[in-house]
Predict the structure.
Amino acid sequence: MNKIHPTAIIGNNVKLGSNNTIGAYTIIEGFVEIGDSNTISSHVVIGCSATDTKKTDNNFENSKVIIGNRNEIREFCIIEQPCYENLTIIRDDVFIMQGAHISHDSLIDSHAVVTNTSVIAGIVKVLKGANIAMGCTINQYTVIGHYSIVATGSACMKNVKPFSRYIPNKSISVNTYAIKKYGFVEFESEITEYVMNDIYPSSTVVRLIIDEFNQWVSIYGRDTY
């Protein structure tokens, strides 16, 4: 069973799992797949056409928005259809706060947080556990690393390393809060060496995180802070 407000509009090509709550005046259109136990608040738009000056035909063919499980998507958020890579993805246990804009072809990985009025441009990858603080703008083709944080009001034009803190006009530092929150305390010293000195970690669990980040970076070629 899903709890759908009578004013919500759900398109014919939308697939819903179970136990989802969809608020008043929300519109879900195009090819969209939504998993289970998501809370989608009022005045949210999911599956609208991409805002891209090269892709103005509003063609949903071969494109899809995939939203996983247990996500919180608050009021006045927008999540766009892809127009280059076929998928816009919100994975599991993501919190997207009021007024956030998730543009085409973006990936918001599990346990990430996108806070109020932030704008995620097209083809951005926000990896697991990352935090986009209030009012940030993330430029196209940027990779925000696992368990990192981008400071309030930032205009982020480059990649952000896993476990790091990006604060404009300051040196990159270690996101010790995330290290404690997500259970990486035993690896803190090698994480610090990686963030501050680019020393590749020795532990497999940390290496896998760095390797995934590097793989995305190699695809898009943008510089890293």
Observations:
- The chain has one domain: 3-220.
- The helical segments are 176-181, 188-197, 204-220.
